[in-house]
Write a structure and sequence with these properties.
Elements: E1 3-9, H1 17-30, E2 35-41, H2 53-56, E3 59-61, E4 67-69, H3 70-79, E5 88-90, H4 91-103, H5 114-133, E6 137-142, H6 152-164, E7 169-176, H7 189-199, E8 207-212, H8 218-228, E9 235-239, H9 247-253, H10 256-264, H11 289-308, E10 312-319, H12 326-332, H13 334-346, E11 350-357, H14 365-368, H15 376-384, E12 391-394, H16 403-415, E13 420-423, H17 425-437, E14 445-446, E15 456-460, H18 462-469, E16 478-486, H19 491-499, E17 510-517, E18 519-521, H20 526-531, E19 535-539, E20 546-550, E21 557-560, H21 575-584
The structure holds glutamine.
The site of glutamine has 10 residues, from β17.
Length: 585
């Protein structure tokens, strides 16, 4: 009988509910249970793909091509396993399928009502996700905060599951403990109110994870326990930590895993665990449940040590979403940042990441409006500053703002042999740069920005064009995992082969990576570009779509049409990121 854990938020959002859910999953996985995580986003959008990243954070793409919330990325990274579309749900998705079922007469003439039909649909989705992954334990994170109107039907679905299977369902509330500066002590009252609000939905939390800048002390645990009707031992302190990968280790210091398993009526270690089901690919021998946690805490320890060292590698990320400030940005590129960190730590070095606004490298009229770089001299000075980096990434993006600056930066990076890694748009812009400045095709561009250009070296595929003409934008890009055939004599091939100890895949030199884009490398220019030194080293197996470009004579100059960052895992970093970091050390 599978078990279900619901993770809900109290007091306010953005206190790390997703990472808390992912850490819970990790701990239970190390106890030998097959765990999966579901993310519920209460908004109407069908997916995260149509939302502005500044508003929503990163759009995380799954293997099966869903555009989901960044928390799905956290689950994948902590569990070291793929999470599929079926594990992601929004209000829009739930209503759409209920309405479609109604239109298809699947409710057999009944009046279809918000309650119970919406919660029933939610429950079906949760159960289907369990079936698909054959999970022993399903952790469902309900987005938002209790007391919000938006997530009420999701809470109702969870309550209905609890009523039906009392012993198989539990609730964990992740709440926030403020320390008002005028008072200087941690206050528990907001959490008491949050629990009461959850109670009014008919739900009593079994555990509290108390987030705060400091640890929660015992007297406050006692107090919260009494007022919230929870045994003090089930109130866990979750103070801020330097690295999110430390959180499972911290939780375990309070015997968190034992406590969760006890509430669920499960053994501390899964008796049927044979030690192979969750084997991490980087581990030489099949682990026991115990040594999986050991491997994780060794990793967390290694990060702590590296962070203390003054020797850091410096990576610059040149992008456009930077004017809104650091806070938003980190979220917009979460997987890129994590992939860079994983690769640096794998190379035994900590990393400092700088955000560089690409508009600093523009000086023409179009740019004057943003007031970034007033003249050519300033721009050139800004470019010179790029030399301080051990490597520079131009990540994915859309639209025209900041693009000319990115192209200017890529030219400088290429000419100065600074390690360069272009992700998706970054690869497309590197192609444009090469066409303009090496081949001399001055109006080379992407159809996305200038469809009038006679030389669209990046262009739209026919079927994508049709979709746009019909105004069909949501979920219609090239999305999800596609195979890519590597050329043997290339940096990419060496990176991938190195990472898997000399053997790529049964299908010979084929890798698989996730995509999210509408435009493609235009094959009309392929030969000219290759002759001029920009090599195509990865393509779709039919050789039709260009997936990877490289400049062999540079230290590391690689552009990929896909998003390798989505597949980087802390204990299993992505081979291209590993080589990129290594080349700059
Ligand atoms: N805007 C480009 C395209 O749609 C690149 C997308 C991306 O970087 N994810 O093809």
């Amino acid at each position: 009988m599978p078990k279900y854990i619901f993770v809900v938020g109290g007091v306010m959002s953005s206190v790390g509910k997703g990472v808390a859910a992912a850490s819970t999953a990790k701990i239970l996985q190390t106890r030998g249970y097959n765990v999966t995580c579901i993310k519920i986003d209460p908004y109407i959008n069908i997916d995260a793909g149509t939302m502005n990243p500044i508003e929503h954070g990163e759009v995380f793409v799954t293997e099966d091509g869903d555009e989901t919330d960044q928390d799905i990325g956290n689950y994948e990274r902590f569990l070291n396993q793929n999470i599929y579309s079926i594990n992601y749900m929004t209000t829009g998705r739930v209503y759409l399928s209920v309405i479609q079922k109604e239109r298809n007469l699947e409710y057999k003439g009944k009046c279809v009502e918000v309650v119970p039909h919406i919660p029933e649909e939610i429950i079906n989705r949760i159960k289907n996700a369990q079936i698909k992954s054959n999970a022993d334990i399903v952790i469902t994170e309900i987005g938002g905060t209790v007391g919000e109107y938006q997530n009420i039907l999701f809470l109702e679905a969870a309550r209905m599951m609890k009523i039906k299977n009392h012993n198989d369902v539990m609730f964990i509330m992740v709440s926030y403990m403020p320390i008002p500066s005028a008072v200087g002590e941690m206050k528990t009252k907001p959490t008491q109110f949050a629990v009461r609000t959850l109670n009014s939905s008919g739900i009593q939390p079994d555990m509290l994870l108390c987030r705060g800048s400091k640890s929660l002390d015992d007297p406050r645990k006692e107090k919260l326990g009494i007022f919230c009707n929870i045994a003090a031992e089930n109130i866990i302190s979750a103070p801020d930590v330097e690295s999110i990968y430390d959180i499972p280790v911290n939780f375990e210091k309070e015997n968190y895993g034992d406590k969760v398993l006890k509430i669920l009526g499960l053994d501390g270690y899964n008796p049927s665990f044979v030690g192979t089901r969750h084997t991490l690919p980087t581990m030489a021998n099949a682990p026991t449940a115990n040594n999986q946690m050991q491997e994780w805490s060794d990793f967390a320890e290694k990060i702590k040590k590296l962070k203390q060292s003054v020797n850091k590698t410096k990576i610059g990320i040149v992008g456009k979403y930077f004017a809104t400030g650091d806070f938003v940005l980190k979220d917009s590129y979460m997987s890129v940042i994590e992939a860079v960190k994983h690769a640096a730590w794998f190379n035994n070095v900590d990393v400092e990441i700088d955000w560089i606004n690409s508009e600093e490298f523009e000086y023409n009229d179009a740019v004057g409006a943003h007031g970034c770089a007033p003249d050519e001299e300033t721009m050139n000075n800004n470019l010179q500053k790029l030399k301080q980096y051990n490597g520079i990434i131009v990540p994915g993006g859309f639209g025209s703002r900041g693009v000319e600056g990115k192209i200017n930066a890529i030219k400088f990076i290429r000419e100065n042999n600074i390690p360069f890694f272009g992700l998706c748009y970054g690869m497309q812009l590197a192609t444009i740069e090469y066409a303009r400045n090496v081949l001399g095709i001055k109006d080379a561009n992407t159809e996305e920005i200038n469809p009038e250009s006679k030389n669209c070296v990046i262009h739209i595929m026919h079927e994508q064009k049709e979709k746009i003409e019909k105004g069909n934008f949501g979920g219609t890009m090239r999305l999800g995992a596609y195979p890519c055939l590597l050329k043997e004599d290339s940096i990419s091939y060496k990176s991938y082969v190195g990472a898997c100890h000399g053997k790529l895949s049964a299908e010979n030199n084929i890798i698989s990576e996730r995509h999210r884009h509408r435009y493609e490398f235009n094959n009309y220019y392929r030969e000219q570009l290759e002759d001029a030194g920009l090599k195509v080293t990865g393509t779709s197996p039919d050789n039709n779509l260009v997936e990877i470009i490289e400049i062999p004579k540079n230290k590391f100059f690689v552009g990929v049409q896909f998003h390798p960052e989505f597949k980087s895992r802390p204990l299993n970093p992505h081979p291209l990121f590993v080589e990129f970091i290594k080349s700059g050390l």
